[in-house]
């Protein structure tokens, strides 16, 4: 896995040292950053395999099913034939007894709600054995809710160098990149905006065609916007998770140029003017409610902080290029932008 070498070392340190009590190591960030890939790298690392008696992996996802998840976890430990007629409580008890007195590592991938997290965590004993849970999510609220001792890890975007290294690895595997493709390749990697998923999708285009043809690389670079539309499904799931008012606030970013840092005060005034912000039943002003909206979007990792004031509060914000493209596509399809532009 290219990238996140320093993060991997730090997270392994958290997993193999620290308190003897059960601890949660959270990895969170925007869609497509590679949270699951990093968790899998940790899960399979030699130091982790040697450290824990049992390793278990499950995926929560938006369509959370407690019974299916219990079967998924028990499948790491025993044959499932004898458990099919058990109730959910009996399955949870069997899982608890199987882990009692052992040092275990659990990876819970893609958690979307605190209720799901409570269900998942319940059958896992804390026997002061140094057991650990790795949690991945897009939502900062889940990370805060699940935190025990260790600070959560907010996954960053790739650097330009890491982006180019990943693209080369995916296209050429063990081979060398021809010198004549270096410049255009770095430009393509840069256009992916540091998002590993976008880089992998672009690399897939070269795998299907002549990946050493300069002309084809130039074609891909020129049509990169359409080639990265495979990312939109992942962004869509985050978007659909939002209340309708926050969905409107996300789409409104399409009215600003790509890569632009939008001043927070200006953005909130525009949201209020467009009637996106609903009046609070309490004493909160519309400005305070708008700020709550913004912090929710930042916590959902759909909006990124560009500048902060002296108190550390967001002063200007922006969205990733792919989320901008998604918002633009969604806004045009629903004639959302047309309505806004007609009012301006």
Q: Class of the largest domain, according to the CATH hierarchy?
A: Alpha Beta
Care to count the β-strands? 8
Helix content: 40-55%
User: Structural class, judged by helices and strands?
Assistant: alpha/beta
Under CATH, the homologous superfamily of the largest domain reads P-loop containing nucleotide triphosphate hydrolases
Structure description:
Strand 3, helix 6 (114-121) and strand 4 form a beta-alpha-beta unit. The chain is α/β, with parallel strands linked by helices and 344 residues long. The longest helix is centred in the C-terminal third of the chain and has 14 residues, at 286-299. It is built from 18 helices and eight strands. The strands form two sheets. The chain has a five-stranded parallel beta sheet, sandwiched between helices. The radius of gyration is 23 Å and the shape is globular. It has helices at 5-16, 35-44, 46-51, 66-74, 88-99, 114-121, 140-146, 160-172, 182-191, 196-208, 214-222, 224-227, 232-240, 244-252, 264-273, 286-299, 321-333, 336-343; strands at 23-28, 54-59, 104-109, 132-137, 153-154, 262-263, 304-308, 314-318. Helix content is 51%, strand content 11%. The model has no long low-confidence stretch (mean pLDDT 88).
